[in-house]
Amino acid sequence: MSATVTKQDSTLAAIEAALPIEPQTYIIGDRPTGLIVVDVVNCFCTIGYVFAPQQPDAQISTMVSETNRLAQSFVAKGLPIMVFLDTHQPGKPEPPYPTHCEKGSGEEKLVTELEWLENHPLATLVEKDCINGFIGAIDIDTGRNLLLEWISDRKLEALVVVGICTDICVMDLVTTMLSVRNHALSPTLKDIVVYAKGCATHNITAEMALQQGLPKTAIHPQKIAHHIGLYTMTERGAIIADTIKF
Ligand SMILES: [Zn+2]
Hints:
CATH superfamily: Isochorismatase-like
Oligomer: single chain
Strand order of the largest sheet: 1-7-6-5-2-3-4
Radius of gyration: 18 Å
Bound molecules: zinc ion
Structural class: alpha/beta
Helix content: 25-40%
CATH architecture: 3-Layer(aba) Sandwich
Number of domains: 1
């Protein structure tokens, strides 16, 4: 086990050197800014749930506490929050994943620390049944995009994004929003910021994949996958922040 950890750490160090991310302090100032919280639900974060760790996980618990801290700061400043909740109709799969976050199961609910957002007037909750929140925010019946409307109604100039998983749902949303900005679908939008400590991803070691009968492509070393997610977002133009100041 310790040999595996050491090997993972040295691989991580090599990847961090080869693919640097240069985190910075992001100052919100008087810029209209919205916080986007991605999928901080029981299924992915609360110990014992299907896609959550089975024992305490430092990266995930830091993500939850930093998300909560940032959300408290946003509402204290009167700034809006959009909360994405991975939610699936019971029996309707999301390939290639096993059943998860079925509506009514409790898996799709915000973690205990963030339950206060459920009824907060500054929070807009959006259920989504796919990885990418931009796509999930499209109302199939009307074609309206709830995320674009949320941005344009508030003339937001910056988005700060947190949540799980860094390299999956956070990354797909962020890279899409960079195209949204550059295509001027949201003409006020300037900065897409990812708060690194407010993001986390899951961990599947080679041993776990073998034990669970998963394919090799399911192997997902947490720290490496988190870093590559951050790198991919910043090479596309996202700002990676280690500190958010108001
Ligand atoms: Zn899902």
